[in-house]
Model the fold of this input.
Amino acid sequence: MQTNFDRRRHPVRMDLAAKSYEGQVAADRFVEGEKYRVSADRLEFRPQPRQDISIDTEGLFGEKITVYEQTPEGWAWGQLETDGYVGWFSSDAIQKAEKPTHRVTALRTFLYPAPELKMPPLSLLSIGSLVSVAGEAETRGLQYAVLADGSAIVAKHLVPLGHTDADWVASAEALLGTPYLWGGRSSLGLDCSALVQLAAQTGGILLPRDSDMQEAEAGTEIPFDNVSSLIRGDLLFWKGHVGIITAPNQLLHANGHTMTVAYEELDKAVARIAATEWGAITKARRLG
Done:
């Protein structure tokens, strides 16, 4: 039996595991899991069912989750379909919902109780959130997408699920100034690998969540001995960190130095990071 499953990617515990792992791992019981969607603006995932520890990542409104356990204390344990991340989260922030048809492409957009921008909004949704559009409406010349429950979103802030942008790096650049948040995965706050993941998604490129996963799996490995040869969209990795090349000698990254998504001259960033716990560059990769 295999015993070295990464807890972030495999719904496997000693007492409980997903049914699909039966025969691969020893567990007290195996369950199929139930399908839900995130009903909160953002859903925090934690490694344990405790509020006093840092988050691993976030699920976004409308994303699908397979739930394997719910506790009387209001916790649930499950796996996010978007990137396969496993963790503990609030069971109050999930619900059964319609299959999404559209993705939020604006950095942020309000969900209104009706197609009327003067009404108090219900939610503030981040880029990457998913919604199911049931109809259309127009109010004073502004087009809205209407959801099944009658709530509405400004239509130009959405794209169909299959839509892709030719320049995904531009989506990363649009997040310039976004606060750095460890484990954050929204336009209200995000970390280095979430910046890469959310932006790449707009170009139809699905990436794993954390920087070590991206370093091992994203695109194709390329040489980095001469950083001046790197081109727009190349990813540069350090131990526990990733940034995006946007132009010659220019790095865009969500970082704890400025505590924002920021540009930094690449040569200066390399020297600065080398003097920290993150050390030297470890890898470069190019997305296809």
Residues 83 and 208 are 5 Å apart (CA to CA). The two ends are 36 Å apart (CA to CA). The first strand starts at residue 17 and ends at 18.
